[in-house]
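Crash report, auto-generated. Payload:
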Amino acid sequence: MNVPDGLLFTKEHEWVRLAGATAVMGISDHAQTALGDITYVDLPGVGKTVAQGGGVAVVESVKAASDVYAPVSGTVRAVNAALGDHPEIINQDPYGKGWLCELENVAPDAAGGLMTAAQYRSYLETL
Amino acid sequence: MIPLIYEMSKAGRRGVRLPDCTVPQTKAKIPAALRRATPAALPEVSELGVVRHFTNLSRLNFSVDTNFYPLGSCTMKYNPKVCETVARFDGFARLHPLLPQLRNGGMLTQGALRVLYETERMLAEVTGMAEMTMQPMAGANGELTGAMIVAAYHRRKGNRKKRFLIPDSAHGTNPATAAIAGFSVTTIPSNAKGVMDLAAFKQALGDDVAGVMLTSPNTLGLFERDVQTVCELVHKVDGLAYYDGANMNAFVGRVRPGDLGFDVVHLNLHKTFATPHGGGGPGAGAVGVKEPLRQFLPISRVIKRDDGTYALHYDEPHSIGYIAPFYGNFGVILRAYTYLRLLGAEGLREASATAVLNANYIKACLKDVFDFPYEGHCMHECVCSASRQEAHGVRALDIAKALLDRGFHAPTIYFPLIVHEALMIEPTETEAKETMDEFIAALREIARLAEEQPATLHAAPVTTPVGRLDEVEAARAMVLRV
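Recovered output after restart:
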């Protein structure tokens, strides 16, 4: 299972890349594998305020529809519009082109409670 | 492949020749903008062509009347044909729904009103509730009725309630219902035994909790052992306990939700009481309530007057109002009434016991080849995981497709969500041991193939009218034609 260093992870299998007060987020390789072929993504509107742990998007596969939770609090600055027509990008490249949204106004201490790549790898082994 | 009837069309071919219109002015009275400029694009086929087309299509149908249908959670049991006969009696089938609302019309519909009244009484007895309504048109409509009654109860008491507590194994309709009724949802995790985690429930409980929604047996086919404690605890914060009757098939005549402490229940008549379903309806989601909630039930109510006659009653100032037109799906209620009368108390008890026995038989016969994540006896359905087969590249989906080739409907797959590669099997009480043995033999053969020749399973189904459909492409690039 691909778990790149430098990203932070949640127990619900979201990843986030923090850069100052902005952050890019998506779902992990484990999440896309467990969901299977993703058929639809419901992304938030730009400008929406999200709280850490609150629902930010919905991904749907032939198996199930799942809420995606915000790894950090912030305001939605941009969403990955390419996913509208090509949700399979998440399966192909969950950490790159398959990003879900970019947040701004992220608090400086946002990383609290998140797992490092090493911690997330150990966590996956317990599942 | 059977062509579409439009593809069979030949210009000028017809089944019926209509006489010339004898009302010449008609055309002139229709405004030009509403008149058709070109003839409707209807298929032009002969009567025999139409008969063959639809007869051949109907032969592709798969139903419980043709094959074993162990679709977990859906209770695809056999619907006795006598219930169909009764539903077609002219006195019921040709009754106009407005008749009881006309002056003295109620006296012309006493039989139908009595069916509604007595079905309510029988189901109130089965569930341990004070009063029922037959109005909701389906399970989720029943859930919404129940949640609206809970909301009406809190509103009348001036309670400020915000949340429903719902376990993570619940049907998706539960949180959806709570949300539509204006509540937020707190999800309660299941524990290692597959039942709701009581400690997590206690932690989530608070004064802002409107109620808890529980399905029992739960969607893993397991009895929620702490259910009485859960009901007591939620009552302490003046919350209500809602029983989702999706799995009542295991309980009928054995356990009454009202005795466990539930305040509101819904039943799926189309599942537990053997009325048709599976084609998208019609359903019936009867709702029962304890005495303090009677005032909130939808109108109209069917009452029995002192002289023994039946009438519709509308004067209920605290009612949540209409939840559906008229009196619900009367034909479905009538079938359920017939079924209840047919089986009687003893028959209903035997049905639920056999449903539980059959599911446990299947579980016992499969547990050496499939992983069953939760130990112990199940209730009316069993959930296994294809995790062992997944190691050979065979998923629950492949197993489901391979069953189609062997003449069985697939079980429910990938639900409940908390079981990896789930296969959810519900044999129901109406299947003979021989049928279940054939099904078990088929699944054992599939498990063997998963180890020895997994590729053969990836190709399944090969004997059905169409082979493996591309579900992903169908969902991603949906093409709808009307």
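Post-recovery validation: The longest helix of chain A spans residues 117-125.
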